[in-house]
Amino acid sequence: MTTQPATQRLEKLRPERHRRTGRAALAAFLWSLTVIPIGLWQLLDPATGPFSHELYDPTVRLPEAVPDWAGPAALIAAGVLGLLAARSTRWALPALFAVAFGVVMSTTAPMSLAGYLCALFIPLLIAASPVLIARGPIAKTIAGLAVVGVFTALGLTGVIDFPAVGDFLSMLGGRFADIAAYMLVQVWMTVGGGIWAALALTLLLSGRDGQPAPAWLAPERAARWGRTAAWIAFACSLPYGLVRMSWLTPWAWIGGPLDSSMIDPATRVWGLCLGLAALGGGVLCLGMTYRWGVRWPFWMPGLKGRPVPPMVAIVPASVMAAMFTFMALPFAALAIRQDAPELIWSFPFYVWGPALGAATLAYAIRRGVVQPR
Fold first, then answer.
1. How buried is residue 24: exposed, middle or buried, by Cβ count under 10 Å (0-12/13-18/19+)?
2. Coil, helix or strand for 307?
3. CA distances for 198 relative to 110, 125, 264, angstroms
4. How many helices (H) and strands (E) does the chain have?
5. Domain boundaries of the chain, sorted by first residue
6. 81: pLDDT confidence band, cut at 50, 70 and 90?
7. What is the mean pLDDT of residues 275-304?
8. Where are the transmembrane segments (predicted)?
9. Long-range residue pairs from 345-351, CB within 8 A, at least 24 positions apart, any chain
10. CA 297 → CA 60, 139, 217, 269, distances in Å?
11. Residue 280: which of 87, 121, 159 has the closest Cα?
12. 278: exposed, middle or buried (C-beta count within 10 Å: 0-12, 13-18, 19+)?
């Protein structure tokens, strides 16, 4: 008597499963199309191509005996093969492409960009927090006026030098413009790794029709191992966050004690922002295993008590989990080349990425977004 309902559930899940696999396969196909012109760009213009930039430091360096055209030619070939691999019904080949583009082709550049963008966002979030927390239009107006008043007073008293801030942002924008092409290509390689990983995971979780899902993928089991994974991910955010925050104290440290008197105020501010970004991300990991990851907590203005749309947590967490995992090898290579072993433990991406990915998968299973087999 239980066979018919189970069969009906399987029939309902099958179209949605095929749609998700189809979307992931289409994304992998389209991404592979873009890789071909990137490879041609490097092949036809080796002097100024995206892989000739002074900042480019590949994780895996080719021997000097290998001709310069071999790398871009291999990239073009990988793009062509990707057009075929996107149609694969097995997860192994997409997983291989994920490793090739996400790990081998990636550098530390995307992670550095993401870190500094998050750090730039922290002051804006702090400044806007009184307005966000205030309830009602009158309270928000008063909070907004208070924030403007505080910053005006800080500017008039010289605590904040707004012209200097403007010059800094202008300089930063100019620097980003100078490396835009290089950075976009590096980010795009990492995006490709994520797309192939998503296709591999989709195929792996789909399994074969008619076979039951493993017991560990059941929602109640996922809740248990997902909580463990979330706490591990949170713990991984502590080394980097606390090291950066130490720049605000007389005991500044990174790979060893620093002379605090040599750290200028701008560096201290960067340390604060980067530390808060890392620690804030660690706290958000825990949201996927507690109630405030399912319903907005009391301190979220206008959203208190409402259900959290699952993708609001799943999408950014999946992106960061993929990036952290992909960055593990590039950061380890960087640490070895620069004789900076502290990078290996202060950036524990080799644990952080998989743990965050596991916590995200468990959250998706509990919220019904992922229904294996």
1. buried
2. strand
3. 19, 31, 43
4. 12, 0
5. 217-373
6. very high
7. 81
8. 21-44, 69-86, 91-107, 113-134, 141-160, 180-207, 228-249, 269-290, 311-337, 343-365
9. 345/239, 346/239, 346/240, 346/243, 346/254, 346/255, 347/239, 347/240, 348/236, 348/239, 349/236, 349/324, 349/325, 351/232, 351/236
10. 45, 20, 27, 29
11. 121
12. buried
What amino acid is encoded at 366 in this protein?
R
Amino acid letter, residue 209 = D
Question: Higher model confidence: residue 247 or residue 262?
Answer: 247
* pTM (predicted TM-score): 0.77
User: Given the structure tokens 């960009």, which residue do they identify?
Assistant: 113
Find the helix or strand (DSSP H, E) in which 287 lies: none
Which pLDDT score is estimated for 15? Answer: 55
Backbone angles phi, psi at 62, to 5 degrees: -75, 145
User: What residues have CB less than 8 Å from 59, skipping those under 6 apart?
Assistant: 103, 104, 105, 106, 107, 329, 330, 333
CA atoms within 13 A on the CB side of 333: 16
User: Encoding tokens for residue 23?
Assistant: 């979307």
Distance of alpha carbon 373 from alpha carbon 370, whole angstroms? 9
- CB under 8 A, 24+ apart: contacts of 234-237: 234/282, 234/283, 234/285, 234/286, 235/282, 236/282, 236/348, 236/349, 236/351, 236/352, 236/355, 237/278, 237/279, 237/281, 237/282, 237/285, 237/352
CA distance 356 to 372: 19
List 253's β-bridge partners, or say none: 257
CA distances in angstroms from 238 to 61, 139, 335, listed in the order given: 32, 35, 19
Give bridge partners of residue 40 from the DSSP assignment.
Answer: none
Look at residue 202 and tell me whether its pLDDT is greater than 90: no
Do the Cβ atoms of 364 and 198 come closer than 8 Å? no
Distance of alpha carbon 179 from alpha carbon 50, whole angstroms: 10
In terms of Cα–Cα distance, which of 151, 135, 146, 21 is closest to 86? 21
What residues have CB less than 8 Å from 13, skipping those under 6 apart? 371, 373
CA 292, distance to chain mean position in Å, is 21
